[in-house]
Amino acid sequence: MSDQTAHSLPFDVSQTLKRSESIRRERREMRTRINEYLEDPLIARLHEEAMSAGSFVPITLDLTHVCQLRCEGCYFFSEQLDNSKAPKDETVFLEFVRRERARGTNFITVLGGEPSLQLERLKILHENFRCTTVTNGLRRIPREGFEGMGIAVSVWGDHEIDRDLRGAGKIDVFARALRNYKDDPRVIFYFTVSNANADGIESAVDEIVENGNLVAFSFYEDWANRGGEFDQTKGYARALREIYRMIDKHPAQIVTTAYMAEVAAGRKMLDLTWGHDMCPVVSSGYNPELDEWHGSAEWRRRNKERLSNGQPYHPNHRAIMPDLESVRRCAVGEESDCSKCHNAYARYVWVMLNRNKHTRTRQDFINWVTSAWTFCLGTGAIDRNRASEVLPRVHELTRSARDESLI
Ligand code: SF4
Predict the structure, then answer these.
(1) % of the chain with per-residue pLDDT over 90
(2) Whose CA is nearest to atom 4 of ligand 1?
(3) Among 243, 268, 271, which residue's Cα sits nearest to residue 257?
(4) Residue list, ligand 1 pocket, CB within 6 Å
(5) For the whole model, what pTM was predicted?
C-alpha cells in the first residue's frame, strides 16, 4: 500500500493497517532468522526432534493422597492437600480418564502423594497419555507395562541431608531409589539443590551417574521455613557453581542446561521477570459443571486476571487434586508464595511457550531449542538411550548462558 492510500483512510484504519504490516514484516524477519539458525545441523537436529514430539496438552494430577514419607518442605502435606481423597470406585477413575481424553489432554505430570502406590491406575494413565511420574523412588515402578514412561526420581541432598529432610532421620530414601532404578533408561534423578546442600551435590551426582542414570536439577523452596542456607530468597549462587562443575564433569549425563538453571534459579528470562502474572501453569478453563475449585475466591479471581493479561499459557492446564474433580491454583499449593517460587516445571513451560522471544539472536534460539529438547527428553518423548551422545554437544552450545560472576 502506498503512503498516499494510507493517508486517505480514516486515522484508526490507517494505524491498524500499518500495525498489521509491521507485524507481518516482523514475522517474515523472524522466519528468515530461524531458517538461518537451522542451517547448523546440530541446531536443526535438536529442533526437528523436539518438534516431532508434537504439541503438549498438559495437566498435573495428584494420583493419590497417600505417601510413605512426610518430607520437610513438601507443599502437599504442609497445606493439607491430602484432605482431598482419591476415589475408591474404579469407575470414577475411568470416567476421569475418559473426560481428560475428551478435553484433548495428552500429557500428565503425575504427582501426589506417591504415585507408585497406585500402580494399576498409573498403568491406565500410561496407556492413555504421555506421562512423567514424579516419585520418591522408594517403591519401584516395574518396567513391564510401564515401558517408555518418564520417571522423575526426587533427591533432596546427599545421603545425610536427604535422610534428614525426607526420611525423618531414619530412612535412606536416596539409597533405596538408586537400588530400585539402577541402569533404568526411563529415569532421571532430579536433585533438588539449595546453598545448604551444595557441598553434597558432587558426591550424589557421581553416585547417580555411576548407577547408570541421568541427572537434572530442581531448586529447593523453603516452605518449611528452615531459613539460613535453605532460604531461596538468598539465591542459589553456591548451588549454581556446583551445577556448572557437574555439567563439565558429566556432560553426557546432566540434562539441565546452564540456561535452564539460570532461568529456574533466578527470576529473569530475557526482558521478563517471574511472578504469578507470568506463570504458565496456573489452572485455567474451569468447567463449573465438572470442577470443584479448591481454594480461595481471591486466587480464582487472580488466576482469571493472569489468564487475560496476554502472557502465554496452556489453555487446557489444570492442577487436579486426588478426588479427580477439584482444581487448585497451580501444580503447587495455594500458600506457596509466587514471588519465591522456583518450580522447575513452571519455568520450563515459561521458556517453551516464549519461543518467539527467543529468536532475536542465534544464542537466544539455541537457549530455547535446547530447553525444548531437554524438556522432551524429560517426558520420555525423546529416546533417552541416545541422550548421552547428544548432551555434551547441548552443553557446549549453552555454555555462554553461565553467570560469569560465579565462575
Ligand atoms: S506458586 Fe509457582 S507454579 Fe504456583 S502459581 Fe505461583 S508461580 Fe505459578
Answers:
(1) 64
(2) 330
(3) 243
(4) 276, 279, 281-282, 329-332, 336, 338, 341, 343, 346
(5) 0.90
